[in-house]
User: Fold this.
Amino acid sequence: FSIYGRKWQKRSLTYRIENYTPDMSVAEVDASIGKALQVWAKVTPLRFTRIYSGIADIMISFVRREHGDFNSFDGPGNTLAHAFAPGDGLGGDAHFDDDESFTFRSSRGVVLFIVAAHEFGHSLGLGHSNVPGALMYPTYSYRNPDTFVLPQDDVRGIQYLYGPNSRKDPSVDDPKPPTTPDACDSNMVLDAVTTHRGEIIFFKDSFLWRSFPQSQTPQQSLIRSLWPSAPVDIDAAYESRQLDTVFLFKGRKVWAFTGNQPVRGYPKTLTAFGLPKGVRKIDAALHDVNSGKTLFFVGNNYFSYDESRKTMEQGYPRLVNQAFAGLTRRVTAAFQHKGYTYIYSGPYVYEYDLGTGTRHRELRNSYFLRCT
Amino acid sequence: VPLSEVSVEDESFAKNYLKKFFNLTEEEGPAVRRGISPVNKKLAEMQRFFGLQITGSLDADTLAMMKKPRCGVPDEQVAR
Assistant:
């Protein structure tokens, strides 16, 4: 996190909503703004009171283009909003670009609650964070307002300025602030790994890392920065090069994306891939480029799906260790790279030659997902 | 999706972006031309902040990051 070096000297602040966006109802705007302020009130001694006339500490308005503060907005896209650091006059004020399409909770548009919570971070003295996934990261990505929990980096930032909330009811068990997964954590167990147009993508919680062939440094971002309608905490993923499509699995549902566009007709259920109705989730998926078959790992077993015929092959499920010698533990992720098959089990990666069924090496996560 | 090349419009867009969000000031005088250009320095600063590969040049990933919807911090904040 970063700070501007300015903070409010008082703990009780006022806010006023000067006008409304036509994109949402008055009640939705009121609720989004109120909830966005509570994000910060929950973890600090700060308290916010709404006023309906006069000058509030935080004046909130929806404006377009040039709006009197010499920081013009730029029409739809790019800049969504801005807010001023604590102080008199414009200090603390938050302006929202009304050329955007604000929404209450839909991923088709910009969720006002998320943008407002970010801007109020500025209103209270926080600058931008360089931690992907932090609320104060400067770029927008969709998050569900109903399940939002202020990330750890933002909690640390705001408590550095104002301290923790001493009036918190100890009987209320708040959800733990989410932390950003660390590629240098040698015990991390990845959710899924897949190739994607020459890159390797590693999934963990609501994050992914993209590893480019020409770069040694994997790039971390939120899954929803790449695919706004994608699920988080996925179970498995694979790429079909024939279809130029990446499939993401979570529970009984499957999502599909070509490039960064969702494929029409998805999400579908696991049964669309020929898996029995009794399968509630898969552990991992592996697309074999040579045979065109996709293997779905479920517990100690695996199924084989024929991509060209779009049917499940006869004689499955089979035991995993029949095809992968010595593999007795649950498969957590799998992918192919340069002709070899890599099976993840916990923090370990096993290198196989699928043609001969032989195991070559035992590796660690960091072999592909480098700690930099 | 990788971009094949960076257009003149993209370069101008990137310069404006760096002026707005990374305090890029116009380069002037021979001293600047002898060293790394301020644009390249600011590009490296931006790439470091966003965890991108630090090349100091305007590549497809950097441009894609610049074009993402974002918060526009007011200039007054920097002055303060």
Notes: The radius of gyration of chain A is 24 Å.
